[in-house]
Amino acid sequence: MRIAIYDLDNTLTRRATFTPFLVFAARRIAPWRLALLPVWVAMMIGYRIGLYDRTMLKTRGMRLMLGNAPVATLQEAGREFAAHRARNGGFMPATLAFLEEDRAKGAQILVATAAFEFYARAFADHLGIETLIGTRWDGHTIPGGNCYAETKLARVRAWAAEQGLSLEESELRFVSDSFADAPLLELADEAIFVSMSAGKRTRAKARGWRVISAD
């Protein structure tokens, strides 16, 4: 079995999605919350200097910018957000070429991302990808934590087990722009790292990963 797994931000999409989604959705759901953007920027700085982890950062960001918006409302905003990105060249052509190659080879394709499922689902649907593994949101908290690093690998393994598949016994391709995805990149038979950064490209090549330009 051939399995092809794609990250979302800066891999299938040209740019990150979370902060742009917060702005996009707040503009539609609660425009007054846009005045809180400087607070969100300060919170991101707090994360960068180690005051809290990604799960807490994203939880606080959701509460700050979108309040208690129902998940159904967030899903609708997610569909609009993904459509807006698609209309404006928001996908990575080089990565889409790999996606079409995997389709032609009959691969089982999935998106595994730290992005919230309520909007990542819309991106996957736009690309015709049925299986999505992302960060969950129950309206107040992130059950199971951020779908990132080892947590992402564990979620992918759980999915494979449900399908009766073994990642080790499959022909596995994984495409990502992030060193946080090293657990899956190291496991893959074909690890593809997407970056325009010379430093990151050098580090990725040193680990034996194939490197492509983000264009």
From TrEMBL:
> Mind telling me which InterPro entries this protein's record contains?
HAD-like_sf, HAD_sf
Q: Does the keyword Ribonucleoprotein apply?
A: no
The domain of life for this entry's organism is Bacteria
* Signal peptide, first to last residue: none
Q: What transmembrane ranges does the database entry give?
A: 30-50
Q: Which UniProt keywords apply?
A: Membrane, Transmembrane, Transmembrane helix
The record, for NCBIfam families, names: HAD-SF-IB (TIGR01488)
Protein name per its UniProtKB record:
HAD-IB family phosphatase
Q: Which species is listed as the source?
A: Qipengyuania soli
